[in-house]
Amino acid sequence: MSYRILATTDLSTNSKTGLRFAIQLASQTGAEIVFFHIADISKPAPWSDKKYPDYEKTEVDKKMARLKKFAGKIYDEAEITPGPGEYEVQLGEQVDELIIEFAREKNIDLICMSTRGAGMFRRFIGTHTSSVLSDAPVPVMAIPKSYRRRAVSKVLYASDFKDLAYELTAIRKITHPLDVRILVYHYTLTLLKEDEEVIEEKIKVHAAPDVEFRLKPQNLENTLVENIKEDSAKVNASLIVMFNHQSNDWVEQLFDTSKSADLTLDSRLPVLVIPKRKV
After folding, report:
1. Is a pLDDT exceeding 70 seen at residue 247?
2. What is the CATH T-level fold of the domain 4-143, as seen in this structure?
């Protein structure tokens, strides 16, 4: 079954990576893309309220033409034939709120956004992507500026194993049309015998041809982010998955950037952030 991707763009060069990823993913899955642009059109000071609507319509039409041309060029560069899709231009200033509202109203399954080139995790969390990641009702794919189009084939997912059934189901909802392998990493400092037995039982329950579990002691010289970065490079992952409901200690490790720019994820990889479970 196909799904709908909301590909957001401000028509800038930096936003192209989000569209590239959406187009690549749709070409692999048959998903429908909704290309979405938010325009902030100010009324010229001397103009009357009566005259402004015509001006606004003209400007929206111009933006729509630019949006279609912008997306069309990316299709051409990728040598991909456009599939099913829509184009939407909305007026407003609150970009994050409009994206979230549109996704909720239009049955969007995945939001795809560029990170505007911010390398550090906290830096792109500080853009419009931040609010969307926090509040979106659906998964959000954050695509770095340096991303180059490639097929999605291997997923690295770091889990605390506390809600594994839900997490694997949520990942598969996005990746099910793809021939991907999900590498589930669990980083530990020390494990009690009882904890090991619980984890081993969960692995048995969730064993599947598309899943591989890897339990690794955490290198005390590294943060969790650094471990993910190193392992994603080692296995040549094409996508990193995170959940925004991980336990507090994991969240602090993932988003702490106080130790300098060394705490970055591999800037070449997209990051899929999936909402917490609704209870």
Report:
1. no
2. Rossmann fold (3.40.50)
